[in-house]
Specification:
This protein has 488 residues and is mainly alpha-helical. It contains 16 helices and no strands.
Length: 488
């Protein structure tokens, strides 16, 4: 039984290294959007390259995150976590030194691999190390400090882009890793799941990531209309179908398809796809809108979007408590509608927009909507399956959210007619941005309707979320790694 106490020096070191590790991945996912216009100018990159700068990371992270948790269970959570941190730092160095957009995209894909190893491992180390009496408070502190990191991310990213340069958005990970790795090796006890056995579902992981990559490529390159684009789209769909077949037939699948036998679980993941597609599209485009169209600096754009994260950090725990009292159906219906209203308010944000009159009302309404829906969404996912599969359900839901975001980043420019150089033109981008906000609002409305028609109050004995405080705007938290059944 784990016996480290939170108040002990060792307990504080464990908390420090897990927070630093998870913050590395969280910071990169939140600050990259602010840096995109500057990256495009410095590397002479077109819009497709900027889309890939975001999506290359998301493809490997979403495709491999379930496998990453399994590797930690089998080979040691500390070992895999440390490998993930070192891998992520090395890929970050390559990002920071990238001489062109192609190298940057490849390095971002490698970053996603590291993120898939360290993201599930950070919470697993908390759960596997601390005494049961301290575990809840340790998880609370871990998620709270992670939320603070998410809140600081856009501000810090904007400051770095305007000051030392966008490359320091990535190079900042090196000193964090330099602290994280030796602390983990010295103070964090090794742990593994002794019941884990069987073969790893490498084929499933490869097929999942390949399907995401090919579909993303087809959507981003679709304006070219070449035969290669059509072939990639068909191959992506085929890889997705093969993934489902493999997961159904393997004795030890990465993602057991029978988890979708729960209608509630399936419905909540449909809601997740709708809302996180909208969130991914919004945060990708809005940072460019504020810089290219409104004319603000990267720091100004990053700071402008900060209230969404701050509201989640301050109110997510209370939102979860309210949902426990009244049930998740109302929050999951009202929350997406509030978010849709916030995105429609962004239609007022154009040239010479005022922050107080135009931007702030939109991000406040959006933030309140996210507060309303994220905690109940996580709780409903956990409640929709057996307690022993709660960690699996959370991992699948997290991967679904990331996949939805990357598809939105790939598809929205196509749906709104953005050309390769649109992000350089204030007038052209402003028009496309308005269309994109309407599409995102429609996706949120679809999520709201799905929740209203399908979500029901969970049974009283169901699993409750451990991460009560949450600050990430691009994916729900991963829960219960230690409690979950083996994923591969």
């Amino acid at each position: 039984m784990p016996d480290v106490r939170l108040a002990s020096p060792r307990g504080r070191w464990i908390l420090l290294t897990t927070v630093l590790g998870s913050s590395m991945a969280l910071l990169d996912s939140t600050v990259i959007n602010v840096a995109l216009p500057r990256i495009g100018r410095d590397l002479d990159a077109d819009l497709a390259a900027l889309q890939w700068t975001v999506n290359a990371y998301m493809v490997t992270l979403a495709g491999l995150i379930l496998l990453g948790g399994s590797l930690g269970d089998r080979y040691g959570r500390r070992k895999v976590f440390v490998v993930g941190v070192v891998w992520f730092a090395a890929a970050s160095l390559l990002c920071g030194l990238a001489p062109n957009a192609g190298v940057l995209v490849a390095a971002r894909a490698l970053q996603g691999v590291g993120g898939a190893l360290l993201t599930p491992g950070s919470l697993a180390l908390i759960q596997a190390s601390f005494h049961p009496d301290d575990r809840g408070r340790a998880v609370g502190l871990w998620s709270g400090f992670g939320g603070v990191g998410a809140a600081v991310g856009p501000f810090l990213g904007g400051w770095l882009v305007d000051g030392p340069g966008w490359r320091w958005v990535f190079l900042l990970n090196l000193p964090l890793a330099a602290v994280c790795v030796p602390v983990a090796l010295r103070h964090v006890p090794e742990s593994r799941d002794r019941l884990a056995h069987g073969r790893f579902d490498v084929l499933g992981a490869v097929l999942g990531a390949l399907a995401l990559a090919l579909v993303t490529y087809a959507l981003i390159e679709a304006p070219g209309g070449s035969a290669a684009v059509v072939a990639a789209g068909v191959a992506g769909v085929a890889a997705g179908a093969a993934f489902v077949v493999v997961e159904r037939r393997r004795p030890d699948p990465m993602m057991p398809t029978d988890v979708f036998a729960s209608r509630q679980f399936t419905a909540v993941n449909l809601v997740t796809l709708c809302v996180y597609a909208a969130f991914g599209g919004f945060f990708f485009l809005s940072a460019v809108q504020l810089q290219t169209v409104v004319g603000w600096s990267a720091l100004g754009a990053g700071t402008a979007l900060l209230p969404t994260t701050v509201l989640m950090l301050l109110l997510s725990a209370r939102s979860g408590e309210l949902a426990e009292r009244i049930g998740p159906r109302l929050p999951l219906t009202v929350g997406p509608l509030l978010c849709a209203a916030g995105m429609l308010l962004m239609l007022r944000v154009g040239p010479d927009a005022s922050y107080v009159a135009d931007v702030l009302p939109a991000v406040l309404v959006l933030g309140l909507g996210m507060v309303t829906l994220v905690a109940p969404l996580t709780a409903t996912v956990l409640a929709s399956v057996d307690v022993g599969r709660a960690g699996l359900a959370s991992g699948v839901n997290n991967a679904a959210a990331r996949a939805a975001g990357l598809v939105a980043v790939a598809a929205l420019p196509l749906l709104t007619g953005m050309g390769p150089e649109t992000y350089r033109s204030a007038d052209a981008f402003d028009e496309a941005f308005g269309q994109a906000m309407v599409i995102c609002a429609a996706a949120l409305a679809a999520g709201s309707l799905t929740a209203f028609l399908t979500v029901r109050r969970p049974p009283p004995e169901c699993r409750r979320p451990e991460c009560r405080t949450h600050g990430s705007v691009l994916a729900p938290p991963i829960e219960g790694q230690q409690a979950r059944k083996r994923l591969g």
